[in-house]
# Entry
Amino acid sequence: MVFGILGFMPPADSAEGGALLPWIFLSGVLMAAFVGPLARGMPVGRSRHLLVWTSVIFFNLASVGIEGAYFAPDLMTMPLPAFLAQQLVSAVIAALLITSLFAPKQGADSRTRSKPGPLWAWYGWLWRLLAGSATYLLAYAVFGLANYELVTRPYYESHAGGLTVPEGWLVWAVESVRAPMIVLSILPFILFYPAGRKRLAILSGLLLFWVGGIVPLVFQAAALPPVLILASAVEIFLQNFSTGAVVALLFFVPPLTPDRT
# Structure
């Protein structure tokens, strides 16, 4: 509504907004139910909490919006730049609330650290970022193609719910933009969350699936067929969980307190 008043986009349809509001609220509840306990178990300063949860929320939902602008343009109710600005504002507000409601009190001191800082040179960061992005692209190619051939092809060909299939080069261009965004979304969490290698890989994969999969799918629950929602959830789990786990292994830094997991 604010962007409509400022003239950045057409005014929102009140009926449409009212229909979406329960789904938006449900997605917020689901996000808090998963992210809250993770924030409770991360004893770092408030600024680091804000960085972690803003990154997780913004980069995941922004990447989904970028994909949606080309795969389901009819479901995008605003121009992409306005959508990205909206998601950034929403992510910062949500991160502030998560930090205020769930972050442990001992994390109020910005000097509190759960891990030592990584000592990689710039090329160490770069190859890890590229390897994590390549992992997502490989998972997208394998699981996305399998899902398309087995389940979703008829829905895309009939343009169910406003779906469409862009040209092949555009698909890979979009996913090549999304891949590093997905890696960056989880990176601060991996660097700050105090857990062993195996546990961190599992949590990172689940966090990417939950925030980057379940939450956006809830938005579309009223617009897309249930079979498509279920198939997409399975596909996104396979893509995001594998990506999150690999990225966690690539960027893993041992916690200051030994963790056997």
Observations:
- The longest helix spans residues 122-157.
- The two ends are 46 Å apart (CA to CA).
